[in-house]
Write a structure and sequence with these properties.
Layout: H1 3-12, E1 16-21, E2 28-32, H2 34-51, E3 57-62, H3 68-83, E4 87-93, H4 102-115, E5 120-129, E6 132-139, H5 143-155
Parallel strand pairs: 3-4
Antiparallel strand pairs: 1-2, 4-6, 5-6
């Protein structure tokens, strides 16, 4: 249909000619109320934003020569973050001569990954970048909803 004919039809119906698919060949237009079209598009956008999940990345910093008790404390923090449904970036900071022994960091990160395996998995394996070594742990699928269900049952 020619544009002039479509515009005349829209004018006669007291509606607007709205281009709904400008990339199509030929472009697709509809005769409708433009205000209503904009409102419905905004509603769809708002609804998709509501269903979107925000990924939160928490960070836990360690040193290569960490004491056992300190390690257990930090591991507890990592477990708590994973149970809450957050990703955890574990960073090992090397200082001075420690930089010549990166295998200490790898071993520590592997140990942590194995210790928290029931709460999450290693999303990004250990990588050295300068003075730091990082690894990202992610919670297992559905762990956040499980944690919320446990919390709601303990509240009542």
């Amino acid at each position: 249909m020619r544009v002039e004919d479509a515009l005349r039809l829209a004018y006669e119906a007291d509606l607007d000619l709205v281009e709904v698919a400008p990339d199509a060949r030929p472009p697709v237009c509809k005769i409708m109320d433009y205000g209503k079209f904009k409102y419905e598009a905004a509603q769809k956008k708002r609804e998709s934003r509501r269903n979107q999940q925000m990924t939160v990345i928490k960070e836990q910093k360690l040193r290569p020569k960490i004491d056992d008790h300190d390690y257990e404390t930090k591991k507890g923090h990592v477990v708590r973050f994973l149970e809450a449904g957050s990703k955890v970036k574990v960073t090992i900071m090397f200082r001075g001569r420690e930089q010549s022994r990166p295998e200490l960091g790898y071993r520590l990160l592997q140990r942590l990954g194995n210790d928290v395996a029931e709460f999450g998995y290693v999303e990004t394996s250990a990588k050295q970048d300068g003075r730091n070594m990082t690894m990202v742990l992610a919670p297992h699928k559905g762990s956040k909803t499980r944690a919320q269900a446990q919390q709601s049952t303990s509240d009542s």
